[in-house]
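User: Is it possible to get a 3D structure for a protein together with its bound compound? The compound here is zinc ion. I've pasted both below.
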Amino acid sequence: MHLTTNALVLREVNYKESDKILTLLTETEGKLTVSARGCRKKDSPISSACQLLAWGEFTLYEFKEMWSVKETASERLFDGVRSDLDKLALSSYMAEVAEALAEEGQAEPGLLSVTLNCLHALDRLNYPLAQVKAAFEWRSMALAGYEPQIQRCEVCGREQPQEPHVHLGEGLLHCAPCRDRLGKGVSMPLTPSALAALRHITWGPRKRLLSFRLDGEGLQKLSDASEAYLMTRLERGFRTLDFYKKITYKPLLH
Ligand SMILES: [Zn+2]
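Assistant: Yes, that's possible. Here is the predicted structure of the complex:
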């Protein structure tokens, strides 16, 4: 059986002498684990597409209940990402999150397009990395069924909460003074403009995901809250996020 589909490589693991095992996010079948035989040989025609964060057309064949890569074509490698360590680290984190959120055998067109849009933005456009990161985290979580309830304060009903916060465990918006009326757990602060950006990210058109502007404080809060929300709801950390934070951490100068 053969299958031809566009796919993004979310993970690569070397296997035997010259093979790799790849985790793909495919357009038609969702997440798929495939073997790429011989792709680490120098003259392999599939080597370019069979690397982390490559996007291309994959022709696969099934053999002994395992998919293998037969051919690849028209790959895009996001060279602007590969040549910048900060961007590469962020992209690797996005790939790890996409892998965690995607399910085997179930097409994930929203998650795939958000991941590709963010990779494209890092490759070609000049957004702050924290903006791409926060937009990816919030929107991919919403797509995976963890959309926060951000219409109004959960307690008093204000559409523009006083000192807006997001309750991480329950994904609820509330005012700082309304906090006591909600259950236990951590809440993270937003600024009013960060809340407006969060609403745009969550409800706006996918193609305009990054079309918002935030000042430094708003962006920092939006990004801190998105990361904490993602880890709280998924109940796990990400090795690639630790690395990203380690290399982009800029200590305050006194
Ligand atoms: Zn309130």
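The first helix runs from residue 79 to 82. The helical segments are 79-82, 85-101, 109-124, 129-146, 192-203, 216-234, 239-248.
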